Amino acid sequence: MSGHFSVTDYLPADWRDGLFAGRILTREGPSPILVSGGIAYDMSRVAPTVSQLLDRSSLSTDGGKALGALDEIDADLLSPVDLQCVKACGVTFAVSALERVIEERARGDANAAQDIRSRIEERVGSSIRSVVPGSPESVALKAALIEDGLWSQYLEVAIGPDAEVFTKSPVLSTVGVGADIGIRSDSTWNNPEPEIVLVVNSKGEAVGATLGNDVNLRDFEGRSALLLGKAKDNNASCSLGPLIRLFDDGFTVDDVRSAEVDLTIDGPEGYRLEGRSSMNQISRDPLDLVRQTLSEHQYPDGFALFLGTLFAPVQDRDEPGRGFTHKVGDTVAISTPRLGRLVNRVVTSKEATPWTFGVSALMTNLAGRGLLSAKQEEVTA
């Protein structure tokens, strides 16, 4: 599950100025890289996994093997995480909260969505956009919505004290830029979810960010929230990339807070959809979402955390009032200036390349390359 990468297509314009981490596929197997000053360094002899690399006390290229200028390297770019758990936060934007309520009330039927959307927007659209989750105002709004018969489990996580945090994808199952992404073959109402993803090391430190597509099946989750696992976790249903931009003096979590994430979908029939997710409209601060993820759990290999999306796919594709759903062959491009572009083509999960390279295969590969040594420098320092 890899994609042949071109810097000019996928990386941010200032890629020579930032510090990036990621993974490439070499002849020996997957290797973590650092990119500094536009030069890529194979860090596998220092830290054989990205998880271990991001735990180092100093994210420098010391001990790495210079591979050359990144735009001159002929390599396959893998998803930039490996042993990290992949977590996701849902309903962190007001618009996405309303869309989840619509799915729930439509019971997964796209034909019923437009009428429900109009009624709910008229009643709570402006109120939910201004309320702070967990505040006294949110408690008052909840009481009013219960009285009107409009309360929902999705509104609970949108304006209540507790964020929705779930496990999106098994370790090593994510795909990278250029790879096919999968939707279930039996889904008839689905969409991409363009998001920024924070990458957190084993110490609970947010060390950088990348782009992600939290592919979603609206019909499955709409029929029952208990189908979230089937709606979210399928073969090739999670893409990340192109690289992790590491936080430094030139790129901080404030850049995440103010980012504008653009989405384009180009269909095989000539259909085009454009959308934008403005991170300054998120209801919960990104670092608060990290805190809630860590509150009663440990992640010894770190984790990647999808922050949620403002994007609500309501533009009609085939029939008036039915909204958007994917077709096989769609090209999805997610971009923001400081992180670059994540581009994937849509297929069914059955048609996507099977996921066969798991933790056992990775450990076997690293052991065969002599990379699993207790004496590796600063792997856990």
Automatic annotation (TrEMBL):
<dbReference type="InterPro" id="IPR011234">
    <property type="entry name" value="Fumarylacetoacetase-like_C"/>
</dbReference>
<dbReference type="InterPro" id="IPR051121">
    <property type="entry name" value="FAH"/>
</dbReference>
<dbReference type="GO" id="GO:0016787">
    <property type="term" value="F:hydrolase activity"/>
</dbReference>
<dbReference type="Pfam" id="PF01557">
    <property type="entry name" value="FAA_hydrolase"/>
</dbReference>
<dbReference type="GO" id="GO:0046872">
    <property type="term" value="F:metal ion binding"/>
</dbReference>
<feature type="domain" description="Fumarylacetoacetase-like C-terminal">
    <location>
        <begin position="163"/>
        <end position="347"/>
    </location>
</feature>
<dbReference type="InterPro" id="IPR036663">
    <property type="entry name" value="Fumarylacetoacetase_C_sf"/>
</dbReference>
<keyword id="KW-0378">Hydrolase</keyword>
<comment type="similarity">
    <text>Belongs to the FAH family.</text>
</comment>
<keyword id="KW-0479">Metal-binding</keyword>
<protein>
    <submittedName>
        <fullName>Fumarylacetoacetate hydrolase</fullName>
    </submittedName>
</protein>
<dbReference type="GO" id="GO:0044281">
    <property type="term" value="P:small molecule metabolic process"/>
</dbReference>
